[in-house]
Design a protein that fits this description.
The chain is mainly alpha-helical. The protein is built from five helices and two strands; from the N terminus they run E-H-H-H-H-H-E.
Length: 79
């Protein structure tokens, strides 16, 4: 079985929610996004994120986009 290469963009939604004492369900209710779509984002399976969604998450979690998203080229075989 081949090793799984981590995606270069890491979503730190779990950490931000934990730091703010908020659940994914509560965030979902506050920003009007389905729990299923937020779960896809949280697990790193999302292929894209709308700026309006990013804005809403940052507003509710009182953070910057860089607090939510982190880039790492460590898993990139071309680097």
């Amino acid at each position: 079985m081949a090793a799984t290469i981590p995606p270069p963009i890491e979503v730190r939604l779990d950490e931000l929610l934990r730091e703010r004492g908020m659940t994914l369900t509560e965030l979902s209710d506050r920003i009007g996004l389905t729990l299923a779509n937020l779960s896809i984002l949280k697990t790193g399976k999302a292929k894209a994120i709308r700026f309006t969604t990013l804005e809403a998450i940052c507003r509710e979690l009182d953070c910057q986009p860089g607090d939510l998203l982190h880039y790492s080229d460590q898993g990139d075989p071309e680097r």
